[in-house]
Amino acid sequence: EVQKHSVHTLVFRSLKRTHDMFVADNAKPIPLDEESHKVKMAVKLRTEYGSVLHMPTLKENLREKGGANTGDPYGHKQYSGNQGQEVEYMVTGTHPYPPGPGVALTADTKVQRMPSESAAQSLAVALPASQSRLDANRTAAGVGDVYRHAGISERSQPPGMSVAMVEAGGNKNSALMPKKAPTMPKPQWHPPWKLYRVISGHLGWVRCIAVEPGNQWFVTGSADRTIKIWDLASGKLKLSLTGHISTVRGVIVSARSPYLFSCGEDKQVKCWDLEYNKVIRHYHGHLSAVYGLDLHPTIDVLVTCSRDSTARIWDVRTKASVHTLSGHTNAVATVKCQAAEPQIITGSHDTTIRLWDLVAGKTRVTLTNHKKSVRAVVLHPRHYTFASGSPDNIKQWKFPDGNFIQNLSGHNAIINTLAVNSDGVLVSGADNGTMHLWDWRTGYNFQRVHAAVQPGSLDSESGIFACVFDQSESRLLTAEADKTIKVYKEDDTATEETHPVSWKPEIIKRKRF
Fold this sequence. Notes:
CATH architecture of the domain at 198-490: 7 Propeller
CATH topology of the domain at 198-490: Methylamine Dehydrogenase, Chain H
Strand order of the largest sheet: 3-30-29-28
Distance between the termini: 59 Å
CATH class of the domain at 198-490: Mainly Beta
Largest sheet: 4 strands, antiparallel
Structural class: mainly beta
């Protein structure tokens, strides 16, 4: 028969059980054993500072200790600089200098006294040849330092100090010397960019943009389901192409043939012949909206990425699906191609970036550093590096293995697009209509732009979906949510004097992840 208890008793028992469960705190440090600590410190002293133990001590200290080594708990032999002579100097490090670890500072040793010139010279004579070869600028740490930092693991040095291994007379001893914290190098000066043209004509959000290789015209795709071709110099509309039955999400112009490729939320990927302005090929296979596409620079291969979590590689001429790149666990938002390995790079809403082996159709490397969706990836035109954009950070990476270089922090918004030119100007465009311009090498944010929306639009329709530099890299085109295309150019009148770099060599706080 189960004994019944009052609620009070049951609650008390539950509390007691909880208390018993957590009372044994295994994380508490083990109490220090004096004897073993002394042995450890003696060994540490001999190995780290054996080559400086012969250094002279103060005559007052010698008198206090009766000339013997009674004050040293580790039984080390103390040497005076010159036997039989009175020592007239004291060597001071960067800290007050006790005669040994665990020995309290006396009134004399608490005072920092610098040796006189003659004393310093006699000290140099007293040092053995191997010791005198040590760099004069290095400061020997006090034995008190060793004692103070004895509990710290070998790998973590005292703040601001690094162990420099110095070869001295055949035996290695470490001299503690201050290490400068890494500072950001001075960024290259870039003139600011200014808005000089706004082109309107689309009836919906402008979702994608591309400039043709001859730099005569550019093409845009929109939520109004049309593709429009514009004259780059004048900004006039040349041609509208209809055929998609939903938002056009990607456009690209081939440098190898007179073809334009487009993709959209209708799952379609189309190839347009620009001599006839007609669709000549369809690439069927994606199971959901197609978010982006890119052409391989050297072979006739098209790569598309989709909301079905895959990227597909197509043979341009035969329309065959060569590979289906599967591995992402959420929509693939962006894809880029290059001639060198890895030839395909994808960024996804599953927060990862994947570098792919084109021949095998398999992942080479998966980069998991981002915490949020990766909607934009851009390859540097000259360096073997690339950048990825996510609401948490813009990150720079090194090919071929995707080694992390640095974070570009500060653009706290959903980054839809990235573009970079040969001068090292990186542009990030965000969902809230802000555009940040960065120096690629240093990650310095030299300009922030938030262009006004087109008259008649809501402020909430401020958003940048795509941006691209023209082939001369002197114009920057952005595709926006207020149904316009905005064109920016460098401010010719700006100089380094009128627009100085407001840069301070602050300490870099680079996060690995």
